[in-house]
Write a structure and sequence with these properties.
The protein is an alpha+beta fold. It is about 65% helix and about 15% strand. It has 15 helices and 13 strands. The strands form three sheets. It has a six-stranded antiparallel β-sheet. Strands 8-9-7-12-13 form a five-stranded mixed β-sheet, sandwiched between helices. Strands 10-11 form a two-stranded antiparallel ribbon. Helix 1 runs parallel beside helix 3, helix 1 packs antiparallel against helix 4 and helix 6 runs antiparallel to helix 7. It is rod-shaped, with a radius of gyration of 71 Å. It starts with a helix and ends with a helix.
Length: about 600
Amino acid sequence: MRITTITNWAYGITVVLTALSGGAFIMSSRSALQERSAVEEHLVLDTLAEELALGAEVMSDEARLYVMRGEERHLQAFHVEEGRERRREEAVTKLAAQALVPAEAEALAEIVSGAEALDKIEASAIERFQSGDKLAAQDILFGAEHERVQNALLQTVAHFRDLTATRATSELEAARARSNWWSRVAEIMLAVTGALFVAVLYFVLRRRVAMPLLRMAGTVNRLAKQDYTVEVPTERRGDEIGEMNEAIEIFRTNLIERERLDAERRTDQHRKDLILQMMHRVQACQNQEEMTDVVVRFAPQIFPGLAGGLYVLKEGNTFLVRAGAWLDPKQSAVHFPAAACWGMRRGRSHHSSVNGADVPCQHLDHPEAATLCVPLTAQGDMIGLLYLEEQGEEILGLMGPRLYLELIAENVGLAIANLQLREKLTTLAVHDPLTGLFNRRFLDERLQQHIREESGEPLVCLMIDIDYFKRFNDQFGHDAGDLVMRFVGQTLREACAPVGSAFRFGGEEFTVLLPSLGEEEGVALADTLREKVSSAALSHAGQILGTVSVSVGVAAFPAGGSIETLITRADAALLEAKANGRDRTIAASGIKGSRNSSATLSRQP
């Protein structure tokens, strides 16, 4: 119930109770007036009766004195008193006709008749006296009859007074009882009114207003301090306080919603900042390993509830291999055919949900897992896959996270494509397209690097030339010559990979740099190379090409000279080897001595 309704009802009830209290007081006052009227009536009747009795005695005394003394003044007093008695009798007759009960009226009538009888006796005695019969008059006034009538009159007066006293007493008690009852009623009404007033004050002001307002003040203060855990009173009240509670609850709900939206906005902004940082670092990566490390580091920060992996296409773009992973994904294999992923098939992101709403990818261990496969594309070409799986919160089905993931996938795909293109360009820039070895340009860079470092570490250079290479081109064609070149380049690459690098110097000449080796180790490796090359039998287009042999010149640093002269010294040794009959190894340190010493060095194992 509303406070205004309670207040109006309390006001109406208070007015009614006040009116009833006033009525009770009025009735009590009227009872008091009735009580007073009864007392006054009793006094009037009692006074009249007493005056009648007293007047009868006075008249008797005046009549007796007159017949005894004969003085005229006693007769006049007798007549005066007689007139008064007549007026009293008239008053008593009127009073008897108005308010007396039958017994009182009868007693009053007897008093009047007794008084008249007494008056007649006394009047007859006065007549006798005036006629001269003094003794007869005295006998009448002092006789037994006069005494009897006078005593009877006094007894009747006493009886009348008793009757009026009894009636007056009963009426007085009844009036007093009514007055007390109405007074009690008025007091009760006043007490009820006071109790109602106090109850209304306590219930409305304290319990319905003051205490709820205190609770609301505390709630509002906590809400102002952004303490949204505070609970708003939930009792359903239909009054103003209830409306205020509902308003505060709506305010609290709005604040919580605003805080939630602010938190989402902050989270989203933080996620955007992390994505931007990630993209900046991805763009600055020099190779795919660095880029994979960046993705693995930032992905769990951007989406803490998503495990995943970065897959790259290998083996002719038909097989996906995981390049990196974060938060330990468990549903997808480390490598699988590209056709096993619906995302790769369709060329767009594919969501495998828990409820089985879409077809799951074949590379998942549990088809009912919540996963997302986002293909990595660049210029319309598939280059990899961004795989994600939920570990707690369900967010893969939401549009916002999916847009961010697709944005990340797009940028990562472009970065991988750029790195692959860079690797291809780098490979083309530093590798010989025919043999796959490093080219002359990269050889010069390596030598310049060694010159800049000036570390003093040993360095051996092998200059290699294919013996009689022209005959392969002339006899079997240039394709056969290219086959020989590729064979020699592959042999150099396999033999030198653990200890050095092989380069195509130009034409049919090759160069090998062997860091940390001495001249003797270089000569030994050169002999090993010659043996591997000469031990193979090559054929082209069904024709046996014959034995392939190479000549090798070896130069060392620092024992034989500076790095700047390393190539020149090795080339001079190569020329010496070719001049000595080819298919042999000559060290630059042996060129100044006899050919036998060089030959002896070349034959060392």
